[in-house]
Every structure is written in structure tokens, then in C-alpha cells.
């Protein structure tokens, strides 16, 4: 009789478990739709794996608002800085194979790499680069929308003055990841893209994945959107920050179908479909903590975060969580792995005003999967966002109030024209068209509007291009010989007139 009872009860237990999963999926579905509604997000996609199975994969909203093309599991999105895990995994794999060492000076593989502080030439390792502990500030303006090739970008490291001592703290630095990618190229005699394709994409069957800037953009690639200034209209972003030089730090695009394979490989220690594609030791290496990324912490539910190699380690409500975010050109993503639960997820959306959500949009999903109280992270961050919007409005008002009216440039318009150069940031060209000054900087080509005295600005034209404020400076003779500006948000920099 006991055996019969067991036989009859067992299917009921399985059915109850299946129903519980379905209930959780309905909650996840409601949560995702709620994000779209609360933030006006055009499109979002999510995939969840458990052990070696995809348990949830779905698209929400639109990848193309104008043509009403819905997001699906095959829609392609840039994964931005979640590309870093591909780079760090390659480095760890090559270290496992004995082809490089993460803990010797990186100049062994990059002889042309020179730091501002010569001491760093003999100390900085690939592990330092991959865990953001070199002391170098971001200098993201160097690579944004730039045509520099990777060797040229590495040559600019010599001008990057550290803001912290070596291994003194954590500063996120994309250029160090590019440098690590070049080291991978050096020891394999193959491009970083070839290494990713041959060692990861092809063995995992990630056939739709690729690299931004190589070839034409695929037709099923999502658009990203921003809110046009002073209009509240949602428009597609046309300005592209990504550049070829950035690739090892953030140039991969992928779909939920393909990312599920990457997630399964992570959960299973490098195995996919029963085959050891990547060494378990290499996967484990990327999860070894190296640098405290967040010393203060903000929320009780989250522990201080520690950066490993292309991953962040912390706990959420007592659950060990290994994650990373991505942000580029209006696309925001989060990759999360829960090792104790053998669960991993990837979520991405395409709306700039909701960019801050990337850090927490995974957390309610974890709450649902763990069957516990759901914390309203979206509500918390929405409140922060609205407060930031108000602060920014006040800042703009203060800047506008600082404008000195009825002033004029000190020179004739033609005196400002010419080419201005900086050894790190490249060339800015000022031309005169129909008696109006025009600026060309990388792909930015805009009219300069007089602000006051010798200061000019670009204006928002509803295209998503960043605004610039330009100050023209004179030499002892009173001739215009320099430009002062903040290239894409970097510190104030002077460009010297060369012709």
C-alpha cells in the first residue's frame, strides 16, 4: 500500500512543482510589462536558464517603434560591457592553456604599452587590467565614436594620468579591457573577434551573435531610443558611441536565443551539450574576487560588491549573486548568475531614460524565482530618476542664467576656423559655412551657436548627439590658438591649433 501511495503522489508533486514555475513566470511576465509601462520603455527581452535548460525566454514591446516590429528571442541587442566576460574568459582560458600569465607585467605581451607613471610599466598585470585596479581614470572620451585602431588607442595610455595609486582602489576603465584584448591577439596571432568566434560563438552555436562595426547591421537588430529634450517625444538614437577600438570592452551583440547558450555554459562550468567548451578552471578564475568595487553600499538588501574578472560578486538578501551590467548607445543589460541555484538570466532594454535600471532590473526576478517578497526596485530608481531630472533642470537654469547677454566674439568669424589637435583625443575642425561657424569632431558635425564672448555651444537638434561647449583661447599676441572643451564628458582639455 505504501508503494501504491508513493506512485500516486509522485505525479502530483511534479505537477505542483510545474504549476509553481508557471505562477512564477506569470509574475515575471507582469513585472516585465510593468517596467515597460512605468518607464515607457519601447522594448525589452529576457532569458532565464536553470542548469542546462532554458526555462523562460520572451520579448516585450518593440525593437522598431516606427514599424511596430515586436521584440522576440531572436532580436539582436548590443550587450555592451557584458562583452567583458568574453574577454576575461578568453584570458583565463589562455592562462589555463599556459599561453599567457595573468599575474606578470602585461608589457610581456604588450611591449608598446607605456603608462604615464613608468612604475606601472613594471607592475600592471592583465589581472589588474581586467579587475579595474590600475588607478587610471575612465577617459571614455578617448574611444567614444572614434576611428582609432587598437594599437593607436594603446599608445594613448601614456597620456592617461592616474588618479589613484596602483591597486589603491577600483576605477572602471574600458581602455584597459581593450589592452587586454590586444594581449590576447598577441599570444594567439588572431584578432580578438576571431578568438571569440572560434573559441566561444562557434562551439556554442551562437550563430546570430556578432560584433558592432563589422559588416552591415543585421536586419533584426533593435533600435534604441531617447527622449528628445523639451519635447517628451521618444526618438530613435542615431549617435553611435561604439568604435572598433572598444571591441574587447563592449562590442558584442547577441539575441536571447544565443545568450541562453552562454548562460548555460557559465552555469555548467564551461560545458555545453555535454562538451567541455571552456575549462572549468577558466570559468572559476573569472569569479575570484580582486578589487572592492563598492565600499559604501547603499541598500541593506545588497552587500558591498567586489570585482572579479568581468564579473561583480555580492549577495542579495543573503543569496550569492555574480553579475555585470552593460550600457552603450541606449541599450542597457544585466547578466546574473546564482551559483547555489544553478540559475542565470540575461535582461536587456532599449531606452536611455531607464538606463539606471540596468543595475537592479534583475533583482525582482530573483525575488520571484526565490519565492520571496518582491522589492520594488523600479519604484526606488524611478524616484531617483525623477529627482535627477529636476536637478538637471535647475542646473540648466543656472547655466542659462550665467550667460552674459549682448556680448560678441573677440575676432572675426574666419579667425576661429582651423584644425585643433590633441595627442589623445584627436582633431577638431572648425569651418565657416554661410557665415556660421561649424564644428566637426569625429562623426559630430554641427553648427556652433554663440554663447558669450569667445564661448560657443552646440544645440540639441533631436538626434541624440551629445552637446559640446567650446571656449576659444588666445596666445600672447591675441591670436586664437587653442580650444578648451570636455570631450564627451571627460575632463576639460585643450586642443592646440595646428593649421
Concise synopsis of the structure shown:
It comes from Daejeonella rubra. This protein has 12 helices and 25 strands.
CATH-derived topology of the largest domain: Beta-lactamase
What is the count of distinct domains?
A: 2
Total DSSP E strands: 25
Q: Count of DSSP helices?
A: 12
CA-based shape: globular
Sheet with the most strands, sense and barrel status: 9 strands, antiparallel
Structural class: alpha+beta
Order the strands across the largest sheet as they lie in space. 3-2-1-16-15-14-13-12-11
CATH level 1 name of the largest domain: Alpha Beta
The residue fraction in helices comes out at: 25-40%
End-to-end Cα distance: 97 Å
Strand content: 15-25%
Write down the Rg.
25 Å
Oligomeric status: single chain
Unreliable segments (pLDDT under 50, ≥5 consecutive)? 1-19
The average pLDDT value, as a whole number, equals 93
CATH superfamily of the largest domain: DD-peptidase/beta-lactamase superfamily
CATH architecture level-2 label of the largest domain: 3-Layer(aba) Sandwich
Pfam families: Beta-lactamase, DUF3471
Organism: Daejeonella rubra
InterPro entries: AmpC-like, Beta-lactam-related, Beta-lactam/transpept-like, Peptidase_S12_Pab87-rel_C
Domain Beta-lactamase-related: 39-359
